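Quick start: what a row looks like.
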Amino acid sequence: MDKNLIENLLVECWSSETSTLYSKNNPARGQCDVTAIVIYEYFGGEILKTFINEQPHFYNRINGDRYDFTVSQFQILPDYLDLPSTREEILNINLKLKEQYEILQERFEKLLLKRNSYKNS
């Protein structure tokens, strides 16, 4: 997995449609839940969580390495507890998350396919 490529694709995909907390100054804000699901579905591994100000923060572990593609939203790095989580847990947080996830997943897939078609040309 090319971490820099994935980060760039995600930044391109994020918007106010994928998180109500989105802003151009802080595009990763509020994107951890839907992003963790998309990364899990494309690259496998595990969905993990920690807590920041009593709110869950989601990220991934793939092949033993931690990937937090939304860490840029924080001024101070989180203390990672690496607590197991699931897609279902995330989607049950609120009803809007399923729609936000579907939007992010569709955008990410399109950009990934576009990137791969250029790469294979």
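That is the whole record. The longest helix spans residues 96-119. The mean pLDDT is 95.
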